Amino acid sequence: MTLEHLAVTAGIGIAGGWLGSFVMGGLRSGILGYLIAGLLGGVVGYWMLGVLGMTIMPGNPLADAIITSAIGAIVVVWLARKIGA
Fold this sequence. Notes:
The protein is an all-alpha fold and 85 residues long. The protein has a domain at 30-85. It has helices at 3-23, 30-52, 61-83. The relative contact order is 0.21.
């Protein structure tokens, strides 16, 4: 994996984490929190949508990745709040 791939993955994670935490009412841990929520959300989102047999197809692969990551981040933030983390 090149540095460019890592930067794009981090950017998608940050954007997805920000969107997910925005929907859930805020994750107040800054850019690192957004990155962690977005990266975990990306894994959870792709797994969850795969299990459900769904794909997000807005017509742009980057938008697809960000939306999927945001959906997963919403689930991750919701679960973290339910567990009490």
